[in-house]
User: What shape does this take?
Amino acid sequence: MGKTATLAEILKEKGISLEQRYGGEPPADMVDREVKKEPTPRAKKLRDLYYQTLSSANMEFPYWYTRTYADNIHDVPIIRRAKALKAAYSHLTPMIFPGEKLVMGKTHYYRGSFPMPWLSESFYVAKEDELYQEAKQRGSTSADELVKWGQGGGNVVKSFGNVVSLAGKFGIRKEEVPALLRTARWWVGKSVEDEAAKYEAMVPGYPFKTALMRSVICMFESGFTLPQGREVTNYYYPLQYGLDGLIRMCEEKKAEVAGESGGDLVSGMDRLYFYEAAKLVLEGIQAWILNYAKEARRLVEVTEDPVQRKEYEEIAEVLEHIAHKPPETFRQALQMQYTIHIGVLNEDAISGLSPGRIGQVLYPYFEQDIEAGRITEEEVLELLECHRVKFTCIDVFASAGVVGGVLSGNTFNNLAVGGLTKDGRPASNRLEMLILEAGITCACPQPTLSVIYDEKLPEEFLLKAIECVKTGTGYPAWMNNRVAMDFILKQYGPEGMTVEEARAWSIGGCLETSPGSWKPLTLRGKTYWIPGGSGQPTSVGVHFLALPKILECVLFNGKDMRTGEQVFEPHNREIDSYETLVEIWKDYFEKAIDVLNKCNNIQHDIWRKNNMAVWHSILKPDCLERGKHIGNGGYRYNATFNVETCGTANFINSLAAIKKLVFEEKKYTLEQLKDAILNNFGFKTAEEVGSYSLLQQEKREGGQIYDDIHGDCLMAPKMGNDDPYVDEILAAYEEYVCEVPRRFLSLYGKPLYVCQISVSTHAPQGAATLATADGRLAGTTYADASMSPYPGTDVNGPYAVFNSATVWDHSNSQNSQLNMKVHPSAVRGLEGARKLLDLTRAYMRKGGFHIQYNIVDSRVLREAQQKPDEYRDLMVRVAGFTQYWVEIGKAIQDEVIARTEYERVG
Amino acid sequence: MLRKHNDCRNFVTVDVSKGICRRTGDLILIDTNTCEHFTELPKCKNCAAFAAGNEENIGICQAEKTEHWTYPELMAVTCAWYTHK
Assistant: This one.
């Protein structure tokens, strides 16, 4: 064996199997995906343009926001913010791209976004000199460096020509860098991040909190990075009343509440300011739409092509209508939905703003237009395809750690189909069938799709969703309606949630169960009950605690052995039993939640005082009725803050290995295990090797002395095999982790709950973690999700995975997450489709909350890693979202490749 | 002053490096030579109320009673105070 032998080679030589497939061998030749359809020419052209587009940022919105905010220093905070927002919306330059039917964008770029220094400016002010100097030195033309664009899809990973890379993803024109820095400097000391930091420092244990952040035990802080998101927005009010109607409503309400406290001790008087702020922002949104209408009219005048000219005329008519009145047609409603949506995204840094069940929200317009012959299904499909491209163009601007480390550049605009109606009937409809069809014909990451699975849903609908899964795009994901309703009723019952209202829930973000409500939409005299989001963000709270890293700190007396920093107070206890180990881990876990929650509460309190949502508050029930914005408790459901975890499988598997090898069989002492962990079981680090997959790790010279202990750790019981030994540990952990967050309160005085997804954090948090007792090596990516087994360790088939995953009640958690990679040949044809549906049903019937599939031949992924330029359109499911392969980091790519591939599912 | 494609009204800005010419439908780079059909796009640098500042790519907007800093490349298509110089 050579000194650079990989773990895969070493295991093979020793006759140890860590197969990354189940159910036999795949076909000899690489197999493509079975279901492939093409979009309409219009959508194809627009999607092709997207493929060539760089993620771009500009300063237009931040400039006008900051200028106006600075001008109104003496105003009431919400009025000051509303004036700034109005100025920013009103000044956005309209840009209509040839061929578009749905228009408007976050910025005038096709895939545009912008920094929000009023939330956080540190990550670019800190780099001020470097940025400025770089921008000054760059003077060459960009033409010579065009060839670099292919790398990383649309990510601007480094500067070129007159383009400066920000956060490793966004390009900004070098001419705008001085404006960026000047704006950011103005916000130093005033941003949510800076303001909150002053008060966070008053929290006892604040240095401990900063150590937790440095160690990456906690991934990020939501208050100033992504203060909203992973929630479902609501389109009801603009659809029902129109913008003019809402402005009138605000004027009437102002007259009603001016000078009246309404009997409220504190915030009753605030109602006047809220309605005035709402009116200002509505006017800003209106001006933004009308600027686009004006641009469309200009284009009518300068365009010679009669077809294109007519399309610009239609665009102008649609916009001129929805700027004032409620929509009357499907196209108007769809345009309004998109405008409302990106309006929210421009108001705040948000990831995971989900449109929710818009197939049901927009159904009234679809139904009446089809019946009246105003539109055909072919035209609806084309619009839905354009809608997909427009959603895929949405970017969120945040720091590299957040946008790369957490989000993998994704924006998680989750569109859900299925579920139940207000009165408990199947809610799927013909428009949702077309939404699924558009997901097939126009495959692109956004909006990602989810099926709210209920036994009542028709077979035809479910098989259509399976057809969509077989495109290999990773959507739709499958969420269990009954499990979610149970969770929703438990969590929001104290705020008045009923069974009927629980049926209005939907997915916010990846797979965050989010409360909703029903509203009566009236169109041409007919009333439809439509669902919509009615809860606060769920992207908030203690976000991503690295479970295996906390265990590492327990083993090393509170110290992070990667950085050498003492993170937790030393426990100074002899770990002489499994029970002691778990007890100390729980103590550390709770101490981490306590301090992180307190600091997070302060961040969000500063946010709600200075940076509150105005536009989003207009949209969400019951702010307009109550006269309260989100921060004053205007939303119907407020118990949304949570504790997110990462690394469940590695943590549980590590506990099992320690319990078995150290405390029961006593094959190794804890000191021997710690020595092996510190020495990475004799392997190089993942960073040295340049791979983040376990099997590709290379042995260090002389590392063979750890072979026995490593082999035993790898062969210790693993989650996902229907093995009671480890499953009992999982069940005990889940009982604990579903209960413990409830001991902590959010700033709204509501108990926290647990959220068990990983997004992309299993890569950076894995990178920060030494080797673990389950045999995972230092720096390699954790298992994804929460119920996904560690790659290659699930050897007993899918039903064994399901048995393991459902040893606990999933309705005690906001979610759970299970990803499976299935070879396309395993689900080929109608028979294969039925097998996949049966498999999904089986998991749902066992009480699993969520499952999603990558239908892909792993060899395609390996080839795509070698030849990214040939796979610009390849998409994969990561952990709750679909993303272009070329735009995700290598650590996640390696993890997706390493996942067990199922060659059969029957 | 050097004219870039994103200074032209006929240019549809796709991203930080390129866009589409409405006249030809071609995808072109921002930092390449413009043609005879160049039509000036309202930007702060083309406004009568714009004054150069001391810092590169930063100027002064004199449109209101209170002066504000601005930057020459800021598009002014939607600015009520824009007056071509």
Remarks:
- The mean pLDDT of chain B is 95.
